[in-house]
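FW: tagging you since you asked about this chain on Friday. Here's the raw sequence from the shared folder, copied in full. Didn't touch anything.
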Amino acid sequence: MDNITFEQIAGRADCLRKIDRENNFSFIKSYFHFVGYFSKRDEITEHDLVIGANFTYGWMPTILNFKSRDFELSVEILNKVKNDLRITSDEIKHLKQLINNSLVGVSKLLHFLSPFVYAMWDSRVCKFLTGKSYKQKVENINLFLSYLNLCARIVEDPRFAPIHEDHIRRIGYEISPMRTIEQIMFLSSDKPIVT
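HL: got it, structure written out here
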């Protein structure tokens, strides 16, 4: 993803006009509460992990199933995330093993905990970036980390700020730059950047 340019992402920003506040009311309404829930926490506990994983799965087509019992290490990892630190691939793997063995679910939880550091990842974003969205690709932690690096690079570009601010004005609620980038990719997945 190192070869993807700012211009390639910014050139798709018009797709943000497709967001219909009425048809996306549930996502818009819940987004504030999900991000707000974690912003009020100084420290993440097992209680917060269980609640957060369950409300995250309200945005998913599957039911949450904890696949491991190692909540203690997961809480430690999530406290790093809460402090806006990037976690390692092994730490992401650990969270994935706990939370439905799903990188998509983990990415959403990471975003709700630290929306300025983590962007949500799913099959449509994967398809936009790689032209493919089969399970092995979507569940690839290294690909997800490359995606986060790309998002961070786009956010750091001063030309992105007006795109983000315009999007916030249009939708009428506050979101992080990472969410704006993810929405551009999600909404543009029908025309992948890489084929």
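FW: Residues 6-187 form one domain.
HL: agreed, and The first helix runs from residue 6 to 10.
FW: great, closing this out.
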